[in-house]
């Protein structure tokens, strides 16, 4: 440029990719989320075809002051991946999975659902420890932690995360890994979706897997106290290859059940389960099966031939629900068990339940500040769940979950960011614990204008705190 010459005008940012606007064919499908309790009307939805589309969308929204939300599998319990009048940056068309068997890594498009990921990896005999529901998006799951039936053996999904490609608040496409932007990678390992930028791809370490053994043990509902006693002594300290969860169903359903998976053979599983099988409470049914890994994924995800027996998540497409969560750091005494029993006795429907996911094993071997996911020392998570179909049933079901959550507070701590619940008042501490200050500093560095804002996004620290080095803050 010659002296005195004006720089050429910067091109106006514009939306690229597949753009769906109100009134367009397909707009209603495009704005829908998994939880039918939530209905929002974005001003535009961009289905990105590459990282450049996401970058253009971020710049376009920033230039206009339009609210943005990143979206992958649409499974946020509170629907925070859609926003009225704002721009949804949807990555669900980025669903390619490339596996490098030699290096033991896979690059996964941020819009892939879990079944796509498991299928592609399973074809070459590897996997990552993801969640149980086949339609959950890899992005939300990984960014918030990611628990599933391989977690006690292989860790949370975020523990296998090696790198992310992300579009930042400036519209730049960057890679965060152990060499560059390490703090951002740390934040992406459990710091929650939607906070720092739009992830367009994830690089994971993969793990060999062939056959697994799965089981389901059911008991009559009246055995709840005895089963709870036996389960809590067993599940968080069982053999690391064994992950299981306990479904305490509403009394009107008649039964409670423990479901799980061993990276190992059926006979060994039967032996390992003896503390549960020989407990004072006598099971009403016991099923054990050794199956190819992809078969187990299908069974547990409700896609198998026997969904009534195996399915972990009862969610169907387009149904209404309210879920909340908490963590047990100590075994429950009689009071906590009585509180659960009383709530399940008075539940509004037989579909209400409390699900306990056993931690320990590989989840607990990682330090609480080594990744953004803080609840490494928890014994198990609790998920308070209510499902219904008619809108008129909403108030009663939501109130049941909230009453139960509050009644359990003396016995639990914290909550899981991936089981988002807008009722939790102390959510920053509940989701992030002692990692909150470091997350807030990373937020201030990568998103100083808080472009990636939503009702439960990581708050920015006051400016003075943001300028201290992150390591010092983490140690505070
Ligand atoms: C039926 C069902 C089953 C589930 N099972 C499990 C389970 O087994 N284990 C478990 O740990 N959790 C489970 N969950 C919880 C699930 O992990 C979270 O709801 C998760 O956030 C969903 O991610 P998503 O991409 O599908 O949802 P979305 O609604 O698309 O996104 C969730 C959050 O992530 C953000 N986000 C999405 N994409 C991106 C992106 N590309 N870049 C940055 N941020 C992004 C969104 O803005 C939003 O804040 C389940 C949820 C449901 C509804």
From TrEMBL:
Comp. bias (Low complexity): 465-476
GO molecular function: FAD binding; oxidoreductase activity
Cofactor or coenzyme needed: FAD
Protein name as it appears in the record: FAD-binding PCMH-type domain-containing protein
Pfam families noted in UniProt: BBE, FAD_binding_4
Family: Belongs to the oxygen-dependent FAD-linked oxidoreductase family.
Region of interest (Disordered), ranges: 1-24, 455-476
Domain FAD-binding PCMH-type: 38-209
Keywords per UniProt: FAD, Flavoprotein, Oxidoreductase
KW Magnesium (keyword) present: no
PANTHER family: BINDING OXIDOREDUCTASE, PUTATIVE (AFU_ORTHOLOGUE AFUA_1G17690)-RELATED, FAD-BINDING PCMH-TYPE DOMAIN-CONTAINING PROTEIN
Organism listed in the record: Sorangium cellulosum (Polyangium cellulosum)
């Amino acid at each position: 440029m010659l002296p005195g010459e004006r720089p050429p005008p910067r091109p106006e940012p514009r939306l690229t990719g597949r753009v769906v606007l109100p009134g367009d064919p397909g707009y209603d499908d495009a704005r829908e989320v998994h939880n039918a309790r939530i209905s929002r009307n974005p001003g535009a939805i961009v289905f990105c075809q590459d990282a450049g589309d996401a970058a253009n969308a971020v710049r376009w929204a920033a230039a206009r002051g339009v609210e943005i939300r990143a979206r992958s599998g649409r499974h946020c319990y509170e629907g925070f991946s859609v926003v009225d009048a704002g721009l949804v940056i949807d990555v669900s068309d980025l669903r390619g999975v490339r596996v490098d068997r030699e290096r033991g890594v896979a690059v996964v498009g941020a819009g892939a659902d879990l079944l796509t990921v498991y299928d592609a990896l399973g074809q070459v005999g590897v996997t990552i420890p993801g969640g149980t529901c086949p339609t959950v998006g890899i992005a939300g799951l990984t960014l918030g932690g990611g628990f599933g039936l391989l977690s006690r053996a292989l860790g949370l999904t975020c523990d296998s995360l090696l790198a992310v490609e992300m579009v930042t608040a400036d519209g730049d496409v960057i890679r965060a890994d152990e060499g560059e932007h390490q703090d951002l990678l740390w934040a992406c390992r459990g710091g929650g979706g939607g906070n720092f930028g739009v992830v367009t791809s994830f690089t994971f370490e993969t793990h060999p897997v062939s056959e697994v053994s799965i089981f389901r043990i059911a008991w009559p509902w009246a055995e709840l106290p005895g089963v709870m006693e036996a389960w809590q002594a067993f599940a968080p300290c069982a053999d690391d290859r064994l992950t299981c969860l306990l479904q305490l169903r509403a009394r009107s359903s008649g039964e409670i059940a423990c479901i799980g998976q061993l990276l190992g053979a059926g006979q060994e599983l039967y032996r390992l389960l003896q503390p549960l099988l020989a407990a004072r409470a006598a099971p009403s049914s016991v099923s054990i099966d050794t199956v190819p890994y992809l078969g187990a994924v299908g069974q547990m995800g409700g896609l198998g031939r026997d969904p009534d027996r195996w399915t972990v998540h009862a969610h169907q497409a387009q149904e209404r629900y309210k879920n909340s969560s908490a963590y047990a750091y100590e075994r429950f005494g009689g009071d906590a068990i009585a509180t659960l029993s009383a709530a399940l006795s008075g539940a509004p429907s037989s579909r209400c339940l409390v699900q306990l996911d056993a931690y320990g094993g590989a989840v607990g071997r990682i330090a609480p500040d080594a990744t953004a996911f803080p609840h490494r020392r928890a014994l198990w998570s609790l998920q308070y769940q209510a499902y219904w179909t008619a809108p008129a049933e909403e108030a009663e079901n939501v109130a049941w979950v909230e009453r139960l959550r509050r009644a359990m507070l003396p016995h639990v701590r914290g909550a899981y960011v991936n089981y988002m619940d807008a009722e939790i008042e102390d959510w920053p501490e509940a989701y992030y614990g002692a990692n909150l200050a470091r997350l807030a500093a990373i937020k201030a560095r990568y998103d100083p204008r808080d472009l990636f804002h939503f009702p439960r996004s990581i708050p920015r620290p006051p400016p003075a705190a943001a300028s201290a080095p992150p390591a010092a803050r983490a140690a505070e």
